[in-house]
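ping. complex inputs:
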Amino acid sequence: MTQEPVALAAAFASFAELWSPRIVTVVNDYDVRIAKVEGEHVWHVHDHTDEFFLVVEGELHIALREAGGERTVVLPAGSVFTVPRGTEHKPSAPVRTAILLLEPTGTSTVGDRHDEVPDHVDATTGHALT
Amino acid sequence: MTQEPVALAAAFASFAELWSPRIVTVVNDYDVRIAKVEGEHVWHVHDHTDEFFLVVEGELHIALREAGGERTVVLPAGSVFTVPRGTEHKPSAPVRTAILLLEPTGTSTVGDRHDEVPDHVDATTGHALT
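pong. complex structure:
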């Protein structure tokens, strides 16, 4: 199979759903996924994997429940953050935001344990780009 | 250790060396690295791992030696590409370019097999951000 570069702008333009990641490329047994987000995701935890976020556009907030208490990190466009495995977290975005994620193939968007998943959050291991 | 977000613009501003990746964050046993590049890298191959490229600014070319012959993929800013493991490749950039890379921790910039490494190419497994 011949691979071609993927323009992220075109990839983002190819879908409208929020909190519903698309897989743009696979690196060994990891997915690079992109998602459009706005509003609140759900508290969840990945017990066995870190999760990487890069903000392409907008602003992502990630609430974290750490040993020292709860805090929220703010990621403006062009910033990156890794949520450590085992850390409960809840992403949210005050405005329409475009993010790129990296995590092992098969990782669920709502983790291994989570609060009740609201209708606007897609519980998925990622969708193919179409 | 409390993690904080990293602004890529500040991270890029913190070093000047070309073809000399800095590790901005670690995701499980993978590094997210950034590099400033211009001119030609060296033909090399990673026998055991794919390598992911995201172009933050500028334009990256990646020459590939595939079963069907040699070709060059062109990645404008905002595009991504994964070089499959075992594929000889040579990145180059016609202008000053900023890239983000993803590969397993310990992966050498010149792969497992490579042409003679020119002086302007840093053979490294990545440097810490300072």
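The mean pLDDT of chain B is 95.
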